[in-house]
Amino acid sequence: MTVREHAQETPARPGDRARPVVVGVDGSGSALDAVRWGARDAARLGVPVRLVHAYPRSDRDYPALSMNADQIRAELRAWGADRLRVAEAVARETAPGVPVELRLHEGDPRVVLRRESEHAASVLLGHDGAGGLSRLVFGSCGLALTVHGHRPVVVVRGRVADQGSIVVGVDGTITAARYAMKMAALYGTSVTAVRTWHAAPGDPVDRHDAEHHALVARMAPLTEEFPEVPVEHLVLRGRPGHTLLAFGQHARLLVVGTHGSSAFAGLLLGSTSQSLAFRAPCPVAVVPEDPEDA
Q1: Cα-Cα end-to-end distance for the chain
Q2: How is the chain split into domains, by residue range?
Q3: How far apart are CA 20 and CA 32, in angstroms?
Q4: Higher confidence at residue 160 or residue 14?
Q5: Start and end of every UspA domain (predicted)?
Q6: Cβ atoms within 10 A of the Cβ of 199, count?
Q7: What CATH architecture does domain 4-156 belong to?
Q8: Region of residue 143 (left: phi > 0; alpha: psi -120 to 50; beta: else)
Q9: 226 pLDDT above the threshold of 80
């Protein structure tokens, strides 16, 4: 397949085609794990998988290397195109018959992936603990893609399994829970909905029961929407981060939302912003808030 190079993506009109699953490719092994995950998701959804690589613009000459800016950019383009072809082979082996699109961009990966997310079903990134693309996207720019992006972002890391429940933190809107239910329906698995609470002076003795009732009520519209998905409702006293990390040991996927006032979103937007995305023992999906789910 020919690698298409873009200086700027032309926005697609609604209905032009099915939204692809977008995967960021940076040459790492974890990125190839993300390609495999993305190809399988694309097959289940009946959409293309789009593999994207972005390389930085170089405007400087490097006399010590006997290379000028144009030569540096040509080398970066060639390296990126090669990484995309390797990723394409992995995608085709994983999900034969799924259309594979290759996109090579010059620019900041955060900006490129945010733009790609506008017309994507989801965006996937690999993370192996050594940095790379996911660390850049989720790092100093304040989680640019998840906060300002338009679609769910899945960080593929840790144990990548084809079994286990999808675990979702339910706190704030139900956007993340809806995504968890949708993916569970596609995967043919169950959902574990988790709500945490902290004891406070003056709490009623039935606080736990009240929290459990609230969780069941919050999930009720989704259990009606996805009757084929078994749902376990769990209410636990404790910290949300530790709770989800513990459940991640046996989860197929952890799902959290970005609703700013929720405890689970604090894992992403607060002082311990990267703890879940970078410490979880399994892939993590970060789902932007949908105001209609408030």
Answers
A1: 43
A2: 4-156, 166-293
A3: 17
A4: 160
A5: 19-157, 166-288
A6: 10
A7: 3-Layer(aba) Sandwich (3.40)
A8: left
A9: yes
Nearest CA to 186 among 37, 287, 294?
37
Q: How far apart are CA 293 and CA 269, in angstroms?
A: 20
Q: Return the CATH fold of 166-293.
A: Rossmann fold (3.40.50)
Residue 72 phi/psi, 5-degree rounding, is -60, -45
* Amino acid, res. 222: L
208-218 pLDDT tens trace: 888 999 999 99
> DSSP H helical segments within 105-171, as ranges?
109-117, 132-137, 144-148
Beta bridge partners of 174: none
The total of other beta-carbon atoms located within 10 Å of residue 142's CB is 11
Helix (H) or strand (E) holding 22: strand 21-24
- Is residue 194 a contact partner of residue 218, using CB atoms and an 8 Å limit? no
Pairing between strand 100-106 and 49-55?
parallel
Query: Coil, strand, or helix at residue 290?
Result: coil
pLDDT for res 10: 33
